[in-house]
Write a structure and sequence with these properties.
mainly alpha, MetI-like fold, 11 helices, 77% helix
């Protein structure tokens, strides 16, 4: 039997991706979920239920959350969508102002740096003192946390504009509004979508944290009640719902990204 030549080994390494077995993102997600369920079932047999209930008990609590208290999840989702939408608009406006108004840029950047240095807990406590309405508190906290992400990313996106593009469009002597419409706004769409995809999980965690401290309705408030009454299955059920929401939101943003940026070619460096 002869040993395989180096050329054969190199050909195997450089084989087209279609000839290799790949589980794919969805398959990997399903596999990880099944492994977690199996691990949870195994651990639930050796620890008390208030530490880790079985998947069957958690599934029953999940069904109760969806059928008995579906408005709790709806309230949280509406709060998150409202805060994300306003933060996107305000952050984009601040990022544009930082890029198009050089005299204001140092002051706006200083405000954003100070904002990002304030802990989330501090904003929640400030909101409790400033606002009586829980909806105002949560909306204020989320906006103060999320706006700097959009502002910084939009500003960096405009700074990343290729100089060749600016010189090319400058030959047409465009007005400021035309420059904004035909060059800057289409360019920053990718940065806005990337920021939304990156922070939606973080925003969800901050929402639950704020609801737990300052609200009587919502997923965070229900998780606080479950924690106080030692109902671990309810805590895990609400957590599963939040994970499902994050997965669906990431998928929806991915679809929007592929549609809005279909003109852009993508490099596959892993192939």
């Amino acid at each position: 039997m002869t040993a395989s030549s180096p050329s054969h080994a190199l050909a195997a390494e450089l084989a087209p991706p279609s000839r290799r077995f790949r589980l794919g993102d969805n398959g990997a997600l399903v596999l990880v979920v099944l492994l977690l369920i199996a691990l949870m079932e195994a651990l639930s047999r050796v620890v008390p239920p208030y530490i880790l209930p079985s998947p069957v008990v958690v599934a029953a609590a999940l069904w109760r959350a969806l059928t008995v208290q579906p408005w709790q999840l709806l309230v949280s989702l509406l709060r998150l969508v409202a805060a994300l939408s306003v933060s996107l608009l305000l952050g984009t406006a601040l990022g544009l102002a930082m890029s198009l108004l050089p005299r204001l840029r140092p002051y706006l950047r200083a405000v954003l740096v100070i904002d990002t240095g304030v802990p989330a807990l501090s904003w929640i406590l400030v909101a409790v003192f400033w606002f009586r309405n829980p909806e105002y508190r949560i909306f204020f906290v989320l906006c103060m946390i999320l706006v700097p992400f959009y502002a910084m990313q939009v500003h960096d996106g405009i700074r990343a504009l290729p100089r060749d593009w600016m010189e090319m469009i400058g030959t047409f002597r465009p007005r400021r509004a035309q420059l904004l419409r035909f060059l800057i706004l289409p360019h920053i769409v990718a940065y806005v979508l990337m920021t939304t995809k990156s922070i939606i999980g973080y925003a969800t965690r901050m929402l639950v944290f704020a609801e737990m401290i300052s609200a009587t309705m919502g997923v965070g408030a229900e998780m606080g009640v479950a924690q106080a009454s030692f109902h671990m299955e309810d805590v895990l059920a609400w957590t599963v719902l939040l994970i499902l929401f994050n997965v669906l939101a990431q998928g929806a943003i991915g679809l929007i990204e592929r549609h809005a940026l279909s003109w852009r070619s993508e490099a596959d460096v892993a192939s």
